[in-house]
Amino acid sequence: SVSKKKTKKIAKNQAIKQIDLAFDDAFPVGGDELGAIDEHSQTTNIAVNTTGTAEVSCDPGERVIAGGWKDTAAPTNASLIVPYEDHRTGNGTGWRASGLALGTARSITVFAYCIEP
Prior knowledge:
Elements: H1 4-26, E1 38-46, E2 51-57, E3 63-71, E4 80-88, E5 94-102, E6 106-115
Antiparallel strand pairs: 1-6, 2-5, 3-6, 4-5
């Protein structure tokens, strides 16, 4: 016969095994197997009351995994960037962001975080 304590221990061990298997399926690559993540950026000036686009590409052989943009100056009551586009490029090798400069000319910097598959 198996005691209640022994049954709980077996159940716990089986649950841990199942969690480990599920984790391995969800994350098939461990952190030690990933390459370095490179940050690439490009700054674009946008004239007052016009739209502008900044786009940056990964190095050859790299793939973009994330990206974003920032206004290079803090917004004020009289001047800001109104974003209207912020996404991966169509071919998946870079990042693109666009915005409208209101009040004064502004600059945006777009970032792409790239990794070699």
